[in-house]
Amino acid sequence: MSHFEYIGNLHIHSLYSDGGDNISHIARSATRAGLDFIAINDHDYLTDTLHLEEEGFYEDVLVLVGLEIGGRYHHYLAYDLKKMLKSRGQGPQEVIDQVNGQQGFGFLAHPFEKGMPLTENSMAYTWNDLSVTGFTGVCVWNYTSRWKERVKSALHGLFLLTFKSLSLKPPSRETLAFWDDLCGDKRVVAVGGSDAHGSTFKYASINFKPLSYDHLLRTVNIHILLEKKMSKDFKKAKNQVYGAMREGRLFIAHEKICPAKGFRFSFHSDEGAGLVMGEEGLFQPGDFMISVPRKGEVRLLKDGKLEKAWQGREAVYRVKEKGVYRIEVYRHVFPFGWRPWIFSNPIYLR
């Protein structure tokens, strides 16, 4: 079950909407961050068209262009679109249906975010209609959303700027519970993203960029697993990345805590069958194999509840019953304690 691993950052905004730089400069930040691919998701209501002409390889970084579709509520991260799609006058289910009609796919963005108390009066772009269907998955960990919702005062802001990474909270309990509940019925992919804007923050007479692209592209990333090396041909590479995202063959990691390349979570049945993150199979007795690149606290969850926890880099767990299993890894950083690091997609044993 050998795979090739590639690291990317999702949910990035450019000058085509409310971002702070053009795509070529953002791609340079991605190169400096050591990424293999990035995905641009400009707001549909702020951009004139779907800028697919910007897609391609920028040096060794694959740049993909999607959209963040939605206005006041129900933001949808859409990928593999063929033409522009506008949210105005459409409900969230209509948006999802239109994305699927283009053979695209997408994720509910920051469904339970809280907003920034200090300057935004806690305005949040939530998902209020959770009866929608047909979406591929949920963005469970949005760096910018989780960071800014803790900025309650100038003093809080100073602390959070000083310890941008170490102070970051994990995905909210509400978001994880929502996702776990969905996974009980069907495969639902979890992704994470930076929601990078690289924009200037204005407070009183102070203007500065608290969250630059160079910082954000080194934070909450996804690691996809491919059966073959990523192609140097753009169209083939695009299909490979989108294929892994559709299937959930990926995990989410906060790289500022520690580089996460090399994490693995797999199932090996007694009869020789094997599954990796995102895959589903009929239950058979077997073992979970977990490998972490650096020492951490490894937590195995079954149907959303803690099943077992270990400290170290390797773990084996005997599976005796069906369920939806996933991994969370926390890493100890003095003096902040256990910090959220890795969140896997599930292995579904039905």
Task: Give a written overview of the molecule.
With 350 residues, this protein is an alpha+beta fold. The chain folds into two domains: 4-252, Alpha-Beta Barrel (TIM Barrel), CATH 3.20.20.140; 264-349, Immunoglobulin-like (Sandwich), CATH 2.60.40. Helix content is 19%, strand content 37%. The protein is built from eight helices and 20 strands. A hairpin with a 3-residue loop joins β18 and β19 (337-344). The protein is globular.
Task: Outline the fold blueprint.
Elements: E1 4-12, H1 23-32, E2 37-43, E3 56-58, E4 61-69, E5 76-79, H2 92-101, E6 105-108, H3 117-120, E7 137-142, H4 143-148, H5 154-162, H6 173-183, E8 189-193, E9 201-203, E10 206-208, H7 213-216, E11 220-226, H8 234-247, E12 250-254, E13 264-269, E14 274-276, E15 280-281, E16 286-302, E17 305-319, E18 323-333, E19 337-344, E20 347-349
Parallel strand pairs: 1-2, 2-4, 6-7, 7-8, 15-20
Antiparallel strand pairs: 1-11, 3-4, 4-5, 5-6, 9-10, 11-12, 12-19, 13-14, 13-16, 16-17, 16-18, 18-19, 18-20
Considering the chains and any ligands shown, give keywords for the structure:
350 residues, alpha+beta, TIM Barrel, 18-stranded mixed sheet, two-stranded antiparallel ribbon, 20 strands, 19% helix
